Amino acid sequence: MKIRTVKYMxxxxxxxxxxxxxxxxxxIGSVAAxxxxxxxxxxxxLNINNVAxxxxxxxDSIQVYLNEGLDQNEVQEIGQRxxxxxxxxxVEYESKEQALKNMKERWGxxxxxxxxxxxxxxxxxxxxxxxxxEDADGIVAELQKLEGIDEIKYYKEIIENLLKIAGFIRTVGxxxxxxxxxxxxxxxxNTIKLTLNARRQEINIMKYVGATxxxxxxxxxxxxxxxxxxxxxxxxxxxxxxxxxTFQIISDxxxxxxxxxxxxxxxxxxxxxxxFSVLGAGVGALGSFISLRKHLRV
Amino acid sequence: xIEMKGVNKVYQKGVQALANINLKIEKGEFVFLVGPSGxxxxxxxKLLLKEExxxxxxxxxxxxxxTNLSRRKVPYLRRNIGVIFQxxxxxxxxxxxxxxxxxxxxxxxxxxxxRRQVPMVLGMVGLSDRASQYPHQLSGGERxxxxxxxxxxxxPSILIxxxxxxxxxxxxxxxxxxxxxxxxxxxxxxxxxxxAKEIVDVMQQRVIALERGKIVRDxxxxxxxxxx
Lengths: 298, 228
Ligand SMILES: Nc1ncnc2c1ncn2[C@@H]1O[C@H](COP(=O)(O)OP(=O)(O)OP(=O)(O)O)[C@@H](O)[C@H]1O
Ligand SMILES: [Mg+2]
Fold this sequence. Notes:
The structure holds two protein chains of two kinds.
Chain A: H1 3-19, H2 21-58, E1 61-66, H3 72-83, E2 88-94, H4 96-107, E3 125-130, H5 136-144, E4 149-153, H6 156-198, H7 200-209, H8 213-253, H9 256-259, H10 265-295
Antiparallel strand pairs in A: 1-3, 1-4, 2-3
Helix pairs in contact in A: 1-8, 2-6, 2-8, 2-10, 6-8, 6-10, 8-10
Chain B: E1 2-10, E2 16-25, E3 30-34, H1 41-48, E4 56-61, E5 64-65, H2 74-78, E6 81-85, H3 96-105, H4 111-124, H5 140-152, E7 158-162, H6 170-185, E8 189-193, H7 197-203, E9 206-211, E10 214-219
Parallel strand pairs in B: 3-8, 3-9, 6-7, 7-8
Antiparallel strand pairs in B: 1-2, 1-4, 4-5, 9-10
Helix pairs in contact in B: 3-4, 3-5, 4-5, 5-6
Bound molecules: adenosine-5'-triphosphate (ATP) and magnesium ion.
């Protein structure tokens, strides 16, 4: 294809967009709306997965808080009993001093806050690594029989629930997205139909003079893709600012502990931009194809 | 060169528009296609342009069998056939020049060729001084001449006209005939479907008469032969 032909195609595409600006806006809006919803779902699912993964790494273990005031022998005895439970791989003792130190490290910049504590509120504890996560329930049942234990912390349920929620959002989201995308495609194909009707006479002449089918089709496909990409651009902006804002609020109002578990804005936008561009252009092109198939016999 | 062998055309609902057509039109001929309304003249033309497919038979254009031509090649066939219609079919928002240039743009001609070729054909149809006007500023005869210019600007070997003078008064019709005759003299085959008795009678060219889809007469230097 020659340069001037490409120029001609783009000009025709733009003329079409402008001629039906009302419908163009509607198309762009519907693509944008679909993609924003998609963005919301992706954000939720990816973040939940992320949290689940991180917590799984950090808490793929059971923590046993010991009662205050146990002597060394008692502690040792409890440790040995725990070690003999089936499925326990490793038992580590963490003194309350060590626990506070670790916490300071985890909090990073905000660790200084812990320096103002008058006395250490953290208990002595055992940290148990399991052979597999599935053993957790059995191990916990055995632990509950032991004396001298204040509290047993384990995160299996939380992790499982998080993964369940992510799965649910993903399924519902996919159905919703599919519907929204179909609607967007329908609106685009109707927009293209308007251009097609406005250019009917021109197309008729083009056929008689021997324009190839693709020469006739390209401007419409470009018009559809432009609609889809414009929608995608808007959606990217909305998701970008929306996500950044939320991220900010969460780190400000709550603690860095929460936002540390969120995927960074930059990484999030990498996924979003490429995905939205492909989807937007694809939906637009498909929308025009539907129209061309139905209304243009070349 | 146009050749039809045993061509039948039956539309949906069983209307037989053409029945067993056999004919040959040599390069450079001037041929009138006449016959009452519904005789199949426009159908004949549509088959040549591959707007419609024959139900049966074979059609050759310039020794190429176009009967089974793939849809992808149809545009290239049409580049070799210029067409004009009773209703001119000009684009109202383009000037005379642009209307003619349009036919060159869509076959991706260079703008250099366009700048050279368009004024030349406008000169041939006598519209050199109207290049920058819009169709609504022209008379019927002038509009038809623009459509002729557009049809021949890509140098087709065949020019087909479906009732080109149908919307014109007799005097203007004659101007159009002069232009067509002149194009024919330069070697282009001209095929014209018409109801214009006087024109056919005066021109003394080959006449093919259709009735209910059949060729009932094929005469060199013929006359119209009907009283309508
Ligand atoms: N697309 C179509 N579908 C069905 N029947 C058609 C179609 N086009 C034409 N016909 C029929 O085929 C026959 C021939 O039509 P055609 O248009 O070729 O006649 P014509 O000679 O050009 O007539 P006119 O002088 O009025 O233009 C007519 O009976 C017409 O009704
Ligand atoms: Mg007709």
